Structures are given as structure tokens and as C-alpha cells.
């Protein structure tokens, strides 16, 4: 049996997908060539990209008003592409900060825009709608749907009440993990490497009327409109990543789609939070209950010195990569789409056993 990999990024992939990649690695679709050797202009690869787009559209329910684009550069490139493309004639952008990634996106956007702080959180909770403050002159309102480092997730789509200000979301770490009403968004994006395949691909879903707002000095390869016009091929795309994400999308479909991904995510995270909650003297949690992430469970041993002991014992038990992000320390279990519920159960068993072996000294 493979060990359970709780890595936050890049992350575990479904075993059937990995096997499929292995099985057709030397001879893709009877061509005698590997997918790594296939031209991005070949009819087969063009069909593959079309298929991936169709799958993203049908899984997420993307309406015709929105384009689906495939970019490179990871989520962090979007921190710059969003303001470069969406400011238009405006100069102000509003940011909701709930943790590391939204803070980072806000900082990057300062190169291009005046930032209006719509909410400044400290990585322990999401704001209520009433707490979100947006000026009407803002070109867009940005937030991060799931803060991967802090383990803070929005329970639903925030409603700032600022009609006419497009909503932009970084969904990198909870993409394809629950149904989303795409019509509510001006733009949403996700780097693939958490829930949707290996690193190297970023999916951008953008309302078509927001394409073409970029000013002339925006570089060609950073302009969404160029991706839309070229079928996401303004240059050589990451063909292998597109291929892997297409297999991932097919796997999600075959497992029952996003409602099923959500049910499993709730089940996995419930199992792990319940185990942690049973030992409040051993494991500390900083995130408000209502903002707890289904994807990244972040916790700290009450005795900080036990962190390396926990990691070593967990590793020996076949539970890998549970270290917290280097900036916050502690521990983190990432429970993405490909993590089986049995992985959450194995982790919960380990949490109980570890708490018994290392009770808090009075
Ligand atoms: C991982 C992550 C990022 C950074 O992704 P890169 O592809 O490494 O740039 C940004 N935002 C969120 C929410 C993430 O989880």
C-alpha cells in the first residue's frame, strides 16, 4: 500500500490516475510516442485541451458568459495578472485578507493599484458579509477562498453588497472540491497542484466582458484576452500538465463530481477535527470553528518541542508530510480531493495514539 501523503503542495494524486499515466507513458493513444513528445498543434493535443475545457465547464457549471483559460506561472503569477487585466480605467482594487495568500496577493497588487482594505484578518477567521467594506470605485473585490497556510476557508461566497464590483477569488487550494456558482464571479482561478493535478497549470475562469481591459503595455503573455483568442496557446503550453489535469477531471467525474468531492471533503475533515478536539490539552487550534478549512487542517502541539517527534512517528506510521508551513510552524494535514477517507481515519487513529503516548505534563 502507498503511504498517505498529506503534503500541501504539490499534493497526492489518485492512484488510478498515476497508473494510467504510467501505462500510457511510452505510447499515448497508439501514436508510438509519449505525451511528452506530442506537438501542442497536433489534432490529438488540441482535442485533449478541448476535452479538458469541456470537463471544467461541466464539472463547475461554467456559463457561456465566462471563458475558461489555461495559463502557466502558478497561482502567484495571477497575483499580478489580476490587477494588470482587471483594473481597466480604474485605480483602486479592494482586498479581503484572511491569511498568507490573500496578503501576498494584496502586496503584489500594490505595484499596480491603490489598495482599499475590505477586511484585514489575522489568519484565524473569515469575515461576515457585514464586515466587508468595499468602495464603489473599486475595479474588483479580491479574496482567497481557502487559505492553505492558516487553514481558513469561506463557508460560502462572500456578499459585500457592492453591486457592480466584480468578485475575484483565488481557489487554488479548494478548486473542484465543492460546487461553485460561477455566475457570481468576475474571475476565479486555481493553480492545479493541490486538487487538480501536478504543478505547472493554472485554470482561470473569467467573465468575457472583463477581457480586453488590459492596457497596451501589459505583456502579451500576461493578457487574458490573448489566451482567449489563441485557445490558451499563445505559446507552447504545458502539454503534460494539461494531460494530467484532464485525467484528474475525468477521475472526479467518474467518482461522482463536485457534490461527491464536497461530501468526502466534509467527511475527511470532520474525522480529523473530531480527533483533535478530543485532546485539547495536547493539540491547539487557532482557527474559529466556523472558518475551519475542509482542505488544510492546521494545528500545533501544546508542547512545541513535540512537533519533530510527531513528524517522525507519523512518518514511521506511513503518514507523510504533516509539517506546517515554514512561516507558521506546527502541523498541517492537507486533505485534498485525492486523499481517501481511509487516510483521514488513519490520521485520526494516529492522533489518538500520539496523545496517549505523550500526554501533557501538568
Ligand atoms: C499554493 C497556493 C498559492 C501559490 O501557488 P503557486 O502555484 O506556487 O504560485 C497561492 N494561493 C493559494 C491559495 C495556494 O494554495
UniProtKB/TrEMBL annotation:
<keyword id="KW-0664">Pyridoxine biosynthesis</keyword>
<dbReference type="InterPro" id="IPR020578">
    <property type="entry name" value="Aminotrans_V_PyrdxlP_BS"/>
</dbReference>
<protein>
    <recommendedName>
        <fullName>Phosphoserine aminotransferase</fullName>
        <ecNumber>2.6.1.52</ecNumber>
    </recommendedName>
</protein>
<dbReference type="InterPro" id="IPR022278">
    <property type="entry name" value="Pser_aminoTfrase"/>
</dbReference>
<comment type="function">
    <text>Catalyzes the reversible conversion of 3-phosphohydroxypyruvate to phosphoserine and of 3-hydroxy-2-oxo-4-phosphonooxybutanoate to phosphohydroxythreonine.</text>
</comment>
<feature type="binding site">
    <location>
        <position position="41"/>
    </location>
    <ligand>
        <name>L-glutamate</name>
    </ligand>
</feature>
<dbReference type="InterPro" id="IPR015424">
    <property type="entry name" value="PyrdxlP-dep_Trfase"/>
</dbReference>
<comment type="subunit">
    <text>Homodimer.</text>
</comment>
<dbReference type="InterPro" id="IPR000192">
    <property type="entry name" value="Aminotrans_V_dom"/>
</dbReference>
<keyword id="KW-0032">Aminotransferase</keyword>
<feature type="binding site">
    <location>
        <begin position="235"/>
        <end position="236"/>
    </location>
    <ligand>
        <name>pyridoxal 5'-phosphate</name>
    </ligand>
</feature>
<dbReference type="GO" id="GO:0006564">
    <property type="term" value="P:L-serine biosynthetic process"/>
</dbReference>
<keyword id="KW-0028">Amino-acid biosynthesis</keyword>
<keyword id="KW-0718">Serine biosynthesis</keyword>
<dbReference type="InterPro" id="IPR015421">
    <property type="entry name" value="PyrdxlP-dep_Trfase_major"/>
</dbReference>
<feature type="binding site">
    <location>
        <begin position="75"/>
        <end position="76"/>
    </location>
    <ligand>
        <name>pyridoxal 5'-phosphate</name>
    </ligand>
</feature>
<comment type="pathway">
    <text>Amino-acid biosynthesis; L-serine biosynthesis; L-serine from 3-phospho-D-glycerate: step 2/3.</text>
</comment>
<feature type="modified residue" description="N6-(pyridoxal phosphate)lysine">
    <location>
        <position position="194"/>
    </location>
</feature>
<keyword id="KW-0963">Cytoplasm</keyword>
<comment type="pathway">
    <text>Cofactor biosynthesis; pyridoxine 5'-phosphate biosynthesis; pyridoxine 5'-phosphate from D-erythrose 4-phosphate: step 3/5.</text>
</comment>
<feature type="binding site">
    <location>
        <position position="148"/>
    </location>
    <ligand>
        <name>pyridoxal 5'-phosphate</name>
    </ligand>
</feature>
<keyword id="KW-0808">Transferase</keyword>
<dbReference type="InterPro" id="IPR015422">
    <property type="entry name" value="PyrdxlP-dep_Trfase_small"/>
</dbReference>
<dbReference type="GO" id="GO:0008615">
    <property type="term" value="P:pyridoxine biosynthetic process"/>
</dbReference>
<dbReference type="GO" id="GO:0005737">
    <property type="term" value="C:cytoplasm"/>
</dbReference>
<feature type="binding site">
    <location>
        <position position="193"/>
    </location>
    <ligand>
        <name>pyridoxal 5'-phosphate</name>
    </ligand>
</feature>
<dbReference type="Pfam" id="PF00266">
    <property type="entry name" value="Aminotran_5"/>
</dbReference>
<feature type="binding site">
    <location>
        <position position="101"/>
    </location>
    <ligand>
        <name>pyridoxal 5'-phosphate</name>
    </ligand>
</feature>
<comment type="similarity">
    <text>Belongs to the class-V pyridoxal-phosphate-dependent aminotransferase family. SerC subfamily.</text>
</comment>
<feature type="domain" description="Aminotransferase class V">
    <location>
        <begin position="4"/>
        <end position="340"/>
    </location>
</feature>
<dbReference type="GO" id="GO:0004648">
    <property type="term" value="F:O-phospho-L-serine:2-oxoglutarate aminotransferase activity"/>
</dbReference>
<keyword id="KW-0663">Pyridoxal phosphate</keyword>
<dbReference type="GO" id="GO:0030170">
    <property type="term" value="F:pyridoxal phosphate binding"/>
</dbReference>
<feature type="binding site">
    <location>
        <position position="170"/>
    </location>
    <ligand>
        <name>pyridoxal 5'-phosphate</name>
    </ligand>
</feature>
